[in-house]
Amino acid sequence: MMNLTVNGKKAAIDGKDAVNIPALLTELKVEQPDYVTVELNGDILERENFETTLVKDGDSVEFLYFMGGGGR
Amino acid sequence: MTGTARKFSFDTLLVHGGSEPGPGGATTVPIVQSSSFAHKTAEELEDIFRGRKLGQVYTRVGNPTTESLEKRLALLDGGIAAIATASGMAAITTAVLAIVRSGDEILASSSLFGGTFSLFRDTLSNYGIKTAFVNPTDLAAVRGAINERTRLIFVETIGNPKMDVPDIHELSAIAGEAGVPLMVDATVTTPYLARGADLRADIVVHSTSKFINGTGSTIGGAIVDLGRFNWQSGKYPHFAPFFSKYRGFAFTARVRKLMHKDFGACPAPMNSFLLSEGIETLALRMERHCANALGLARFLKGHARVGWVNYPGLEDSPCHGVAKRLYGGRFGGVLTFGLADKAEAFRFINGLVLARNLANIGDAKTLVIHPASTICSDFGPEEKGLMGVKEEMVRVSVGIETIDDIIEDFDTALNNL
Prior knowledge:
The complex is a heterodimer of chains A (72) and B (417).
Chain A: E1 2-6, E2 9-13, E3 18-20, H1 21-27, E4 37-40, E5 43-44, E6 54-56, E7 60-64
Parallel strand pairs in A: 1-7
Antiparallel strand pairs in A: 1-2, 3-6, 4-5, 4-7
Chain B: H1 10-16, H2 42-50, H3 64-77, E1 81-85, H4 88-99, E2 105-109, H5 114-123, E3 130-134, H6 139-145, E4 150-156, H7 168-178, E5 182-185, H8 190-193, H9 196-199, E6 203-207, E7 221-225, H10 240-246, H11 250-263, H12 269-280, H13 282-301, E8 308-310, H14 320-327, E9 334-338, H15 342-351, E10 356-357, E11 367-369, H16 381-387, E12 393-397, H17 403-415
Parallel strand pairs in B: 2-3, 2-4, 4-5, 5-6, 10-11
Antiparallel strand pairs in B: 1-7, 6-7, 8-9, 9-12, 11-12
Helix pairs in contact in B: 3-12, 4-11, 10-11, 13-17, 15-17
């Protein structure tokens, strides 16, 4: 089991020690995965490195979109 | 049909691309006529504002109906994202001002649509942004006009109303060598004649009011990011915070999170719906527009009262070769032709029965206008010369009626001169 911090909240993934970014996006049902920016332990990941980057127990992940906000 | 849509042909994407079934199985995009969107908790709204979660907040910056349109527009041009705006001019203003700042220069085609020419020459110059206008078909002149302050190259796929056709592939290469983005106004060609990705543009803008809407019912615009340009450049330090977070989406992020949000030129949800409806029939309409325009151009060329015809589809047009290569043997639905003088052009327009005399292009109906006295009347002889506007000139946006009826209307008006 992996314990992660996702967007500031605790999250757990059962049955795996590590997952790559596409698997993580699927596992966590992240919306519009083609548009999301992924930050792993404070570093923005290049999209071409999504397949080869592994997320492990204790990591902190942020998903960021450029669409939200702006109302008043 | 989002997610799996890319494997379908272009014409199928027009009908299905970017769309999801609506409530109760509705097959058209729901019109979400709401200014703002409520969320259950303060934390949820905070997450949306921080970009951690997707969600609608306020229609000025996003709306479900508009978002559906934006997905379709991005898909059609082969872009990574699109932003729909209230008008084509709003799209140009928002996209250009996302890139250039006071002290920067734009290198633009000298044969631009009058509204864009005015924006660059008169309005942006008041904010310290200078524009150098060059003939976009003269590649040596384009290369020679680039200087250390140039931050953007802006051209139209087919100049309106000059009907010149710059070689966008060559301009893309020139822009790439200079390290500046190429922005292309593809209103006259639409993604049906050439996708922005295939043109090798960095950003495409459209007045969706024209052929994309197709019925003269709606004003709208679009900015499409092709995701080709590297914004991590010393020329664009204002992109650094967007590049550091959003990488390949830096341009779209800067437009959406800053310029579009601040300028507020958002489309009404009803207009986004009407534009989505128009997209579905774009292929059929463009085929007819192009065929009718070629038929009318050939007819006018053979008429004794017509002095000249300017349409890239005519084989003796100086732009025929480039247009044929870039646009796959289709040449758009707009042409111009010359009569003896302004008075004769007026008499001709007044003698038409079918064609409407108005300031628009891309309607299903055939439209005519005398540009020199209307859409270009604010410009002096020098500017009119650059734009290819002549006193004896009539511009025609050839509609999708039966070509025999269009020709008969024109033939009658010409013979009554």
